[in-house]
Design brief:
The protein is an alpha/beta fold. The protein is 42% helix and 18% strand. Strands 3, 4, 5, 6, 7 and 8 form a six-stranded mixed beta sheet that branches. It has a two-stranded parallel ribbon with strand order 1-2. Strand 1 (6-12), helix 1 and strand 2 (32-38) form a beta-alpha-beta unit.
Amino acid sequence: MNNEFEIIVVDDGSTDHTKKIVHQAQDRYSVGIRYLYQKNQGQGIARNYGLRYAKGTIVAFIGDDILVLPDFVQQHVRLHRVHKKENEAMLGFVGWDPRLEVTPFMEWLTNGSSVLGRFGGHQFAFEKLQGKKNADYNFFYTSNISLKRSLLRKHPFDSRFSSYGWEDIELGYRLTKKENLIIYYNPRAIGYHYHELKPDSLKKRMKQIGKSAHLFHKKYPELHKIPSPWKKFIFTLLGSRLVCNVLKKLDPHGLYYYALSKKYFLEGINEGL
């Protein structure tokens, strides 16, 4: 099956040994591997760059910290053979790599229901898809998703989203509005997230998401991604030092991280102004 798929690595201005490692893989494996380099411009632009060279009818996206199982390609292809329409996509599952020690913070990041059964971390929320066959645009996770190349050629990632956050959800929502996108969920297409994350990373991530929220809101005000004055008041209260200190004692791995995330999100929104 090796000659039935290709691998495209887009190096978005890395400063490590990515190029050397890819060249070693090109010499070692028979599957076609293409290496592309660009100055750091962000995930969406990097994916568009790779799409320019993609030849297959189906394109699967993964991140640089995602390790997939041997049957990854088969699992994606299996559903696309059943769901052949251009607007039909397939979402796989992403979990922490078994070799990592999953901390309470990392567990919170990937649990979108840890607070009152509705809210939680911003990384993933696969627990909401248990027992479901379909997902909506909120689950347009480019860590493990595949679509028809023809659809992506018509609707590339919006290059204005150059920093972390929103570029994937924006495309998922745009495809839903314009092409009636249908996302099928296959939990057997597994990718492992090999990236240890610590609580001190939350501030940078949420501030970036907050900064980009203005652009998303300008395009789709109906989704209310910029919180209303009432929500801003609630988030400000949650993120206050007094409330955070109380929550850290009462619920250090749920409400506390959630409150911090909203605090930093508001800071990013204010900076984005």
